[in-house]
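HUMAN: Mind making up another protein with tokenized structure?

ASSISTANT:
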Amino acid sequence: MSVTQQFLLDSYRAAQHGQPTPPAPGRDDWQAVREVRDYERFRAVVAERPAHGRFRAALAHFFRGGRGGRLSGGSVARTPRPLP
């Protein structure tokens, strides 16, 4: 059963029982992503680590060749071109 079919079945059952319909699938996905990101930032602050820019800093450190990075020896990491 697909997500859409399950949603339609749940909506039908809710209507039969006089209950509010459930939220549409995918409606709150971005909100969940934001909440996870905010929670990770909160945990970083509580642990006294930088809350912003950690991922980019780690990637930059990796590509600059720090501590066993792949591109050691002075090569420059280039940003890949976006796909058309």
Remarks:
- The chain has a mean pLDDT of 80.
